[in-house]
Amino acid sequence: MGLRKKNARNPPVLSHEFMVQNHADMVSCVGMFFVLGLMFEGTAEMSIVFLTLQHGVVVPAEELPSGSRTLYHYGVKDLATVFFYMLVAIIIHATVQEYILDKISKRLQLTKGKQNKLNEAGQLSVFYIVSGIWGMAILTSENCLSDPTLLWKAQPHNMMTFQMKFFYISQLAYWFHSFPELYFQKVRKQDLPGQLIYIGLHLFHIGGAYLLYLNHLGLLLLMLHYFVELLSNICSLFYFGDERYQKGLSLWPVVFICGRLVTLIVSVVTVGLHLAGSQNRNANALSGNVNVLAAKIAVLSSSCSIQVYITWTLTTVWLQRWLEDASLQASGRKRRSRSRKGMENGVENPNRIDPPPKKKEKAQ
């Protein structure tokens, strides 16, 4: 008996194509494993570590003006929670890709390169919109917008509220899920260094704000950053739909530079001035108190370095794009000048007779 030919749509089990096509289903099975663990007494305690927030402490009413409530600090168990919600982020990523972005790309009939850029811009736009709405709700509920002094005041006992900690856990989970997505999305090798740096910078600053209890300041800076990035991705989406929206892309760098300047101003004013006014020599940065010289220098230098790096990256990208557009326009002008040689007043002259080519004179 002859072997049956393998169907191109059904790749071999555990092959690269099989992992790419079915990674969402496999991740869902792993996630359901932790959820089903809640049904059994022997595994319930372990599953709770992955599904719910840990390291909570009940603060009595005598120490809080708002009454007794549960506040949270960070710990080793947060790694398990981040891992579970990283699985959730992978599932949501695959759902948005299959039911929204794939249908849009099929309708627009884009090339492979533009399709990859459309997928990236679409995924990030959804994430920025959800994170922006969620973050602004937290800032409003915790009175950060009405009382800006909360930006440099730590929570009692270096703790955070439930919604604040869950927000940071979700942010870390999303950016950690971007590492396996590089494999699932078949990112080209030449694009990997830039993607890894982009993801690593987000993890570094979100994790730094989380570990140093700069919750409100980090959240406000994230909202500014996500707003600028959302405008960039929305302009890209409109451009892929219709190239007439190129003017929107040209206006985005102005908004980008303004966003970077506002981020720098907020960082310097909050960390450099207000925290410097109440120096505490007995403070310890490892305990979550950033009111020490080493912590202030680290926060300011990291904030400034990321803004300089992002601005430099934008400048180089736009210079390359400007040079490419200039070369294309120059080549287009040459073609039009050549096509006009055989035309007179926009209409080809049928009576035009080109002179015969000159014959080369024979050498005497």
TrEMBL record:
GO terms for cellular component: endoplasmic reticulum membrane
InterPro entries the record matches: TLC-dom, Translocation_assoc_membrane
Alphabetized UniProt keyword annotations: Membrane, Protein transport, Translocation, Transmembrane, Transmembrane helix, Transport
PANTHER family per record: TRANSLOCATING CHAIN-ASSOCIATED MEMBRANE PROTEIN 1-LIKE 1, TRANSLOCATION ASSOCIATED MEMBRANE PROTEIN
PROSITE patterns in alphabetical order: TLC (PS50922)
Membership in a protein family: Belongs to the TRAM family.
Pfam families per UniProt: TRAM_LAG1_CLN8 (PF03798)
Protein name: Translocating chain-associated membrane protein
Membrane topology: Multi-pass membrane protein
Region (Disordered): 331-364
Bias kind Basic and acidic residues: ranges: 355-364
